[in-house]
Specification:
This protein has 110 residues and is mainly beta. The protein has no helices and 9 strands. The protein has strands at residues 4-11, 17-25, 32-38, 46-53, 59-68, 73-76, 79-82, 91-97, 107-109.
């Protein structure tokens, strides 16, 4: 059976946000997009989830890239998931965004 990683993040005040792009890296330097999620409409707090199939690497790094309506973007902090010990079905929190557009201590603006 394949191992899965559940990524979960919470966002509030998400006006002007277009989408969230899930990015993955095996070396914490070269990130590639693996999927994207559309933003749930409204100004209330939303929780997003994405399940990724592990590639068998000992360590995998994830981050969330948020794209804005004005063509800007922000990138979450990077989270490392180690293959051993691996807890099937465990949720790994990427970032909790409480400010407009996921800015704040959990995100770097680009």
């Amino acid at each position: 059976s394949e191992d899965q990683v559940l990524l979960e993040w919470t966002v509030s005040a998400q006006q002007n946000v277009n989408q969230f792009i899930i990015e993955k890296s095996n070396d914490n330097r070269n990130f590639r997009p693996v999927d994207s999620l559309s933003v749930q409409p409204g100004e209330h707090t939303n929780t997003y989830q994405y399940t990724d199939i592990s590639t068998g690497h000992v360590e995998v790094f994830y981050r969330i890239k948020q794209t804005d309506a004005n063509e800007g973007f922000s990138v979450s902090v990077v989270r490392k998931v180690a293959a051993a010990p691996f807890t099937p079905g465990a949720a790994y929190t990427i970032a909790e965004c409480k400010n407009h557009g996921c800015s704040g201590p959990a995100y770097e603006s680009c």
